[in-house]
TrEMBL record:
GO MF assignments: acid phosphatase activity; metal ion binding
Domain Purple acid phosphatase N-terminal: from-to ranges: 59-150
Protein name: Purple acid phosphatase
InterPro entries named in the record: Calcineurin-like_PHP, Metallo-depent_PP-like, MPP_PAP, PAPs-like, PAPs_C, PAPs_N, Purple_acid_Pase-like_N
KW GTP-binding (keyword) present: no
Domain Calcineurin-like phosphoesterase: 161-357
Assigned keywords, A-Z: Glycoprotein, Hydrolase, Iron, Metal-binding, Signal, Zinc
Keyword Signal attached: yes
Catalyzed reactions: a phosphate monoester + H2O = an alcohol + phosphate
Superkingdom of the organism of origin: Eukaryota
Cross-referenced PANTHER family: ACID PHOSPHATASE RELATED, PURPLE ACID PHOSPHATASE
Enzyme Commission identifier(s): 3.1.3.2
Signal peptide boundaries: 1-27
Amino acid sequence: MGGARRLLVLLPLAALLLLATAAGATAGVTSGYRRKPEATADMPLDADVFRLPHGYNAPQQVHITLGDQTGTAMTVSWVTASEPGSNTVAYGRSPKKMEMSAQGTQTRYDYYNYTSGFIHHCTLTGLKHGVKYWYAMGFGHTVRTFSFTTPPKPGPDVPFKFGLIGDLGQTFDSNSTLSHYDANGGSAVLFVGDLSYADAYPLHDNNRWDSWARFVERSVAYQPWLWTAGNHELDYAPEIGEATPFKPFTHRYPTPFRASGSTEPLWYSVKIASAHVVVLSSYSAYGQYTPQWTWLDAELRRVDRKVTPWLVVLMHSPWYNSNGYHYMEGESMRVQFERWLVDAKVDLVLAGHVHSYERSHRFSNVAYDIINGKATPVRNLDAPMYINIGDGGNIEGIANNFTKPQPRYSAFREASFGHATLEIKNRTHAYYEWHRNHDGAKVVADSVWLINRYWMPTHDDSN
């Protein structure tokens, strides 16, 4: 009889535990981690990460990005400070025998009281997929040599590892982010906007574009970074006579927009390994029948999930954000495009802008119209997983104003700096990790297996 009484007591307790477990399976986590209390501060301009290369008129600020949609071309960019110098890039499969060459172009621009150096862009063509190449420029003065490996040929089961970085800046935390990413070994970076933060300095000090580009050269000269324009790329300042948006950014950072049928460099797509990556511009017109709207409508129809099963979208201003900073700034773009992304079964949407980290469950808010009042996001296995990765380390600091309670669509959030990686394994599985800076390069604060929406659409991977 005593045993029976104990059983009666235990059964309700077990039931409560089961209910708690079931509820916890979908409950969001607001991390209790608190970063160290030191201030976010810019590295001094005499820091070694900003140093000029040795030699007269030596190429500096070297960086590469895809020169076509799949990586059989690579665009090399660099700056010479004293005179234009040569536009030629030599390249080949051996550093001792670079038998191919390409001729580039040179430009420069003025911004208020600043005149840029001589900015060179040169596209190397005829490349083979998955091959290491060496390249050199600076002929006639000081020659510098670098290398890169082209992406593998697109295919449904081709593995690839991306780095995911946003809102980087040039602080000590920025340096930690870049160092940690380099140690984690990605092969290309999906960058979600806000590069140098030059506009945060008096008169939009464009010398900070130069220092930032020298800082990141150790990565961007050796692997392609795919650029998304953020609000700090606008550099729109009519009060000082600068009324051309994106002037420094578009002069310095080319994109392969024409290869995907885009009419503007701020929105475009690429195909890397088993991923089709779509880049959108949060700060360009996207209303019905605008060029960006028209292009995205056609681009989503062109995606072939049998060749590139992973569909990833980049933008700067997040559609789902439970931080008080920049709250709902992406709402009009979400209203315009969310239905398209859900119908296309997009796997992942990456954004920045909010200087913290947040990952969502698979939710959508496409049912609402002005009559039915269904304004609450709901579970939707066709919806993307949203990740806000605007935590690169910029001068503006951490966004630590999370709303309470945590909304149901939010899976994990933390007010820290860091970076992430996305390692695609095959057509059905990819492994995602987020690393916070202060735990070192190899300690993961958040991770999840992503299950492809096209090949396994009924599997809920967002828990």
